[in-house]
Each structure stands twice: as C-alpha cells, then as structure tokens.
Specification:
This is Integrase. Helix content is 63%, strand content 0%. It has six helices and no strands. The longest helix has 20 residues. The relative contact order is 0.07. The mean pLDDT is 79.
Length: 115
C-alpha cells in the first residue's frame, strides 16, 4: 500500500473530518459497523460521490484539473505500463499520458536490462 503525501491544509482538513466522523459514528454505532470518513445522511452509508464533489468544489478543490495534473506528473516519472497499473487505466490511455509528458524512457529500459 502506498501513502499519499497531502498538502498541509488538506491534511489538516482530513484530520478534522476524521475526528468529526468518529464522534458521529460513536453516537450511531448501532447503525453501522464501519466508521465512514465521510458518512452520509444515513450513518450506515458513506456520502454520495456527487455530494462530496460539490463540497470539494465549495472549498476550492477542482477535481478534474487536479486529477489531470497528478496524472501528468506521474506520467513524467513512470513508464506507461506502471502508470496504467497504478491508476487502473488502460495501457493505451497511460501511453497517451506519457506522450503528453514527453518523457524518453530509453534510459530507464537500458538500466532495467543491466540489473
């Protein structure tokens, strides 16, 4: 399992949310055996992705732009096969992203054959 590094403000918001959701779950333990980080209106279910997206946009987090920036950064550091596996996309999609990053992987391939 990999650990994502988050910006300090996002990290702080998630820690606060974990505390709030843990307190809410303590009150409603009979409804669910799982303490959701983002509980829905019904405590036994997580928040719907559409509503979570709305909340994130209200706080200034644009999902598509951030996701594309992150994928481009990964594409500049990883070969297409690794990018596809890591992001759960097709190899053709990952190849397209590595093409956007314009990274030459010949050095990487050469170093892998020497080890």
């Amino acid at each position: 399992m990999s650990i994502a590094r988050l910006p300090p403000r996002v990290d702080q918001l998630l820690l606060e949310q974990r505390k709030v959701s843990a307190e809410r779950w303590t009150i409603n333990q009979t409804a669910s055996t799982t303490p959701w980080l983002f509980p829905g209106q019904e405590p036994a279910r997580p928040i719907r992705s559409e509503y979570l997206g709305l909340l994130l946009r209200r706080h200034g987090f644009e999902g598509l732009a951030s996701r594309n920036s992150a994928r481009l950064a990964l594409a500049s550091d990883l070969p297409a096969s690794v990018l596809a596996d890591l992001t759960g996309t097709s190899i053709s999609n990952a190849t397209r992203w590595t093409g956007y990053a314009r990274r030459d992987w010949l050095d990487y391939i050469a170093s892998r054959t020497q080890t």
